[in-house]
Amino acid sequence: MSTIETMQVVVYEGPFNIVVKKKTKPVLVDDTDAILKVHIAGVCGSDLHMYRGHQKTITGHTMGHEFIGTIESVGSAITRFNVGQKVMSMFSPMCMRCWFCQHGHTNRCVNGPSYGSMALDGGQAEFVRVPFADSTLEFIPEEVHDEMMILMCDIFPTGYYGAMKAITKLLRNTQTAESIVGGTLHAPSALRPAFQTIPLDEVVVVCLSWMWTSWTVPILSAKVLGAGTVYAVDSADDRLEEARKMGALPLKLGTDYIPEIVRSATAGRGADAVVEIVGNQSAMRLAIDLVRPCGIVSSVGFHQGDLPYTAFEAYSKNLDINMGRAAARPVYGEALKVFAENQDKFADFITHRMPLADAPTAYEMFEKHQARKVTLTL
Amino acid sequence: MSTIETMQVVVYEGPFNIVVKKKTKPVLVDDTDAILKVHIAGVCGSDLHMYRGHQKTITGHTMGHEFIGTIESVGSAITRFNVGQKVMSMFSPMCMRCWFCQHGHTNRCVNGPSYGSMALDGGQAEFVRVPFADSTLEFIPEEVHDEMMILMCDIFPTGYYGAMKAITKLLRNTQTAESIVGGTLHAPSALRPAFQTIPLDEVVVVCLSWMWTSWTVPILSAKVLGAGTVYAVDSADDRLEEARKMGALPLKLGTDYIPEIVRSATAGRGADAVVEIVGNQSAMRLAIDLVRPCGIVSSVGFHQGDLPYTAFEAYSKNLDINMGRAAARPVYGEALKVFAENQDKFADFITHRMPLADAPTAYEMFEKHQARKVTLTL
Q: Which residues form the Alcohol dehydrogenase-like C-terminal domain (chains A, B) (predicted)?
C-alpha cells in the first residue's frame, strides 16, 4: 500500500473564510500537464471578488492564479520545459489548439479551466497542476528578479492589455473599409477628406483602477504606448502620488470635480479613452461620464451587476466599449519588455511576504488595504 | 411691404399626427448655407421612432432627413455648388471644421443640427435650408437615377457603415500594439504565436434589421466587403426572400431556432459579428445571444431603453460593442461605389410615390408595413 502524499493549500470556504489545510498532492492527469513545486504565490486583487462574496462560487477549491515555481514533473507531450526549470504561470491555462487560442483570444480558451475554481485548484499551495504547460508557463528571464515575475502572472499583462486596447482602437478609429480590406473601393468625391488620426501625444486617457493593487500598470502602459496625457483617478493620496510618479496627472475622488477637469483639458470633448480596471458600477459609470463622443471604454475589471448606463447614452455618444478579461498570451511579449525596462518603478510593489500558513491573515490585511501586495512564500 | 413667401411642409404634431401645413419659406442664415428646392423627399424608418411616440420630442418642426433637390441660392462662403445644380443631402449636416468632423466622427459634429428637429426644419417641404452645404450636400452622379439617390441620403451609408464596422473590427481584432503603434516593442518569447486573422470567406455575420425598410443594405455590404456567410433574421417571408437574393441565408423569427442554427454553422462558437439596425431591445438581446465570445456587435439602430444584457454577460463573453448613428461622410465614397454597382438590386425598392399633400397617408401606410419605402414628390 503506497502512502498518499499530502501538501498544504489555501482553501476558500466562503466569504471572509480562508483556511489553510491539507490536500492530496496533485499528479499528472494529461500528457500536456506539468506539476510545479511552488515557491511564491501572489494574492491578487481579483481574489477579493470571491473573498468578499461578490463572486458567487462553490467552496472547497484551492485559491490562487499568480505563482512561480520549479517544474517537478512533466507529461509526455511537453516539449518546452524540463524537470528542475524555474517558471511562472499565466493567470489562466490556454491550450493554443482551440479556435479561440489560435485566433489570439486566449482569454476565451475553451479547454483551459480557471485556476482557483472548482474546475482547477490554484497555486496558493505547495504544488499545483498546470494544464497545457507548454503554453501556460513561461521561463523567468535573467533580467527580472524571480519574485517580481509574480507581477507578470496577471497584473502586468492585464493592465497593459487594457491600455493597449484603448490606444490601438483610437489609432484605428477613423480607418474605413477602403484602408482595411485592401483598397478595392475608391472614393468618387473630390471632397473626400483626409481624416486625421489623433496624434498620440494629444491622446487623453483616464485610468480608473482605484482599489486595485496594480493600478499603476495601465498608467505606465498608456504612457509607454505614447498617450500624451494620462489621468489617474483614486481616493487615496499615497496611491495618487504613485500615479504621479508613473507620469499620470492625479485626480482625487470626492475632492476634484473630475468631469470638469477632463473636459477643460480636452476643449470640452471628454477623454479619448477610459481604461476601467476596478470592476464595479461606479467606475463604469464614471467611465461613461468622462469619455468623449466616439471615444473608447476599455474595461478589464471583473463585472457582475447591471450596466450603469442606458442604451440611449451609448447610442447618442457613439460609444465603443469592450469588456472582459485580458488575452495574456498575445500581449505577453510586449508586456514583459515594458515590465523589464521599468521594473525599478515596481521595486517596492510587494509590501508583505508571509508564509503560506498565514494566508488567512494575508487575505484579511489585503482586503482592509493594510497591505498593497502580499505574496505567500514556501 | 414685401410679401412673405410661404410653402407647403410636413409637420410633426405628436404621435400618429402628421399634418401638411404652410410655413414661411426658409432664407439663407449663415454664409455656409444653401437653400434647396426639393424634388423628392423620403420617409425613413427612423422617422417612425418619432411617429410612434417612442422618441420624445417637442412638436411643430418639419420632418424629413432624406431629400434631393435643386440649389436655389447659396451663401457667400459656398465654393462647391452653384444655383441650379441638382444635389442630395446627407441625413445630417456636418461642418467639417469641428474636432469631431476633422477626425472622421461626422456623426458627432458639434455644429450641425439634425434635420427634422426643433433645431432645424427637415426636407419634407417645398424648400429646405441646408447648413454647411459644401460638406452636407453631394452631387448626383450620372450613373445613378435621381430618385435612387434618396437611398444614399441615409439608408445606404448607414447600412454600409454598420457592416463595415463589424468587418474591419474583426480583421483588426488580433492585432496588438506592436503591429499598430509601430514595432518598437518586440516579443522575447520563442513561443509567441503568429495568431491567425479570420479569413474573410470564413467570417459569419448576422444582420438583424427586421422592421427596417432598408434591411438588405447591411446584408449586401457585408457580402461585398467579403464576409463568407451572412445570415439575415426577419419574421416576414417576402423580406427573407429579398435577403436571400442579396446573398444571405434567411432565418425566420418565431420559426427557426436561430441560436442553434448559428452555433451549428460555427462549430458551436456563435457568429463572428452581429450587425443590429432595428433599434429595439429584442434585437439587441438576440445580438448578444448570437455573437461568439470576443465577437463584435455593430449597432446603428436608434436605441432608447435599457440595455438588455448584464455587465457579467459582456465581461464573460469579452464583447466588443459599438453603438450610435453612422458617420456618413467617411464612408460616403465607398458606399456610393457599392450602391452604384448594385443599384439594379434596388430597382423596385421604392414602392410608393405620393404628392407631399398625402404625407399623412404615407406615414400611416409606412407605419402599417403597407408600403416598403415611400417618397413624397413635389
A: 220-337
